[in-house]
Design a protein that fits this description.
The complex is a heterodimer of chains A (526) and B (372). With 526 residues, chain A is an all-alpha fold. Chain B contains 15 helices and five strands. Classes of the chains: A mainly alpha (526), B alpha/beta (372).
Amino acid sequence: MPIMTYNSLFFVLFFAAFLLIYLLMPKSFLKQGVILVGNVFFYKFAGGLNCMALLVAASLLLYFCSIRIERIYEGFEKEAEGLSKKEQVPLLAAYKSRTRKWLLLGILLLIGTLVYVKVGRLLHFEETSRLLDIRFTRIMVPLGLSYYTFSAVGYLADVYWRKVKVEHNYFTLLTCMTFFPIIVQGPISHYDRLAKQFHQLPGFSYERVCHGMQRMWWGFLKKSIIADRITPVTSTIFADIYHYAGLEVVLAVIGNVIAIYMDFSGCMDIVIGAAEAMGITLDENFRQPFFAKSAAEFWRRWHITLGAWFKDYVYMPIAMNPGFMKRTAAIRKKRGARAAQVFSAAVPLMIVWILTGLWHGTGKDYLFWGIYWGVLIIIETAFAKELKAVPAKLHIRTESFGYRLFQMIRTCIYFAIGRMITACGAGRSLFLIIGQIFAAGRLHILRDGGIFSYGIDKKNMLVLIVFFLIVWIVDIMSAHFDVRDRIDRLPFPLRWVIYYGVVLSVIIFGIYGNAYHAGAFAYGGF
Amino acid sequence: MQEKSVQAATDKDIAGQPAKKAGLAKLWKAIRCVVFLSLLFYLTLHMSYVLRQVPERNAKNVFPGFYAEPDNSLDVVTLGSSACYQYVDTPKLYENFGITSYNLGCPIQSTISTPFLMDEVEKTQSPELFLVEVRRYIKGTKKNFSKAVYLMTDTMKLGLNKWGMICRAYDSIAERVTEFLDIYKYHSYWSGVDTTLFEFWNNEKVHPMKRWRNRQGVHPKVASPVVENAEPTSLHKNTTRELIYLLEECRKKGRNVLFFVSPYPYGDYLPGRVAALREIIESYGYTLLDMSDGEAYGLDYSTDFADSLHVNYLGAEKVTNALGEYIQKEYNIHTQHTPEVTADWERYVKANNEIVEQIRAGKVSQEETDNL
């Protein structure tokens, strides 16, 4: 268990010391230097410096490939001088095919490492190599490899598409790519957006530091008071699902949904807050996902940066691929516009969702999970017109609160089913869980106090409910106005009561430390 | 011309005012920030004093009891493992010799802690003598025997002595931080907090027995044969290192320290190790009082032991009397205490005598006296 996790005391102390030194630096390049040292320190205690070594090597590859692509394009620029736009097209195509080699080399090596690690985990390479004592086959799993790989591939593709300027400073590239707040769980950042900020890191701002701290502690609250209270219980139930039934399983599923949201969004609050205190704005990864009215909208609100990455670098290249467009046109001719519309939506979406599933984990469960979401979203996208007509036929007012509530609950159910697919990891997890739900009622646990015998006693349940309601209310408020702005406008004694309330609640009611070995963040294994 | 200069002065005032205001606003923010963090630190620290009392209440009350003693009111402070608070009968030491003392001991107290505990004692007290029971030096303590350290550090006030002790006991930074900021370990006991525990808000609460434990019961033992002029045998290497560190510190700080071996039916290894200890201790100009031959001090092994390692209240009185006589003879302690301190100790002696009477009459159990 690494001693440096975002919800550890060690991280809080490290970050406090880091921030102090960082803010004392008068120049942007000095701040960048402090960040790089911070990254190394973070890696040392979070995953080991070996992991950092691999990322340094990968950054060198990225740097080299991007510079090569730029040089080739510079050659094109020179040769294209004085040529008309029409004449430039074949020339550019020729140069592009040369740059493609470097793009493919970079992507293959980056994705190849990721696949090797993921497949290696699946095939238990480590155990095999230990048995055979073949050292070179041992897999070094770098911290946050998935997030790193996605950012790197995105950057390389943007360089290839000439959307971004090439980074000539290797240390800026390395600092950005290994930026410690985002390396474990994201958000997956667009390199250019991050690099622009790294080139001009702002000076000290009291408001920004305050806001950053507020956000971080809000994240600690979600993670340590709510998520870590629920996760051990739900994990125990899903690990031994045959012993539980009816209401027990239903509560475990609900708990699992709440825990994953609190865990992941809590982590995002911590990392986005940490970056904000440093004057760096990261992309948001959550926007009240359970208020979404459809599956597609849910994924525009949940893990937003992952969805955006797949859209930019998988969906769009497929959808805009000339071969694919030709195929769609052929279907339109042969089978009509409706079939072409379904085809053009379904193919890229299904590819995206299968890849998303495999990104989340290797195995049948995750493949099935990807297909499940793919099918849901394809139905919603391809049959949007038909689905919209249903409420009208049933004389339901779509603007009514009741209908919106129904849509939100439906989204929650979609998500819960998705969670059930992977919860037990047995290959047929969903059917197992549903089977157990209907195996018995077990409603008596509400009457005889059995509900408190699963690891959350009465007092802890009360804490859980109170803080869940607080987070829920704040989430509702956030959908309508900027909560932090409102807090800023409160008289300072009242503000302090809120701050002390949050910080002391985390310190006292949080699940961390020796008495409880805090679990790693749910999205930290990617 | 005059108009121009008036205008310029006004402009300057207008331009200067916002700058001044901004400066004041910054200062106000900085002050607020410091106050906020200080208050947060205060609340967290004091909550940790309360929370740490939830498990093992008695074992945890070692330091709060010591801190609650009036400043400069103790003549002697005893350090050591469980023998220390079961052999040195603090009420008898006062009743018979006028010596005020406190047993700052805990089960299996690590040898690592002794110099740091002395420093901590000297923050509020100026004892004329430190009495060190050496059982752990004889037996040896593993460096990372965490319980031997945390039983003391957990109730210490936050400070350099606590940090120093932890650093000597633990190698990893994570362990050190966790042990130092002990709310990390104890926050999960929040559900066990009741209003009575808020008495520990300042980590100071009078120990009704000044960390003295009246042991009851009789566990008949046979005295080990006395070995004259034993050859020194080697001590545990950690123990030797810790002892030398302690002796150097004590010599440097000019402390009076009396080391003593408490009597119990030891094994064959003891005489050789006592000889080795004596050699080291005396080389620094300090004394080791070897009381391992308990019969020489009036102990009756068939009636004076509560278990195989510790004497009962009858045996403790005999050991304490012998120690008191030695201390008065060699160190001549005659401190004048304030009337409040004297009255407090008189009350304490009276209360203890009543308890002893009740023990003799079989009216009070071990658990009841332990939970006083």
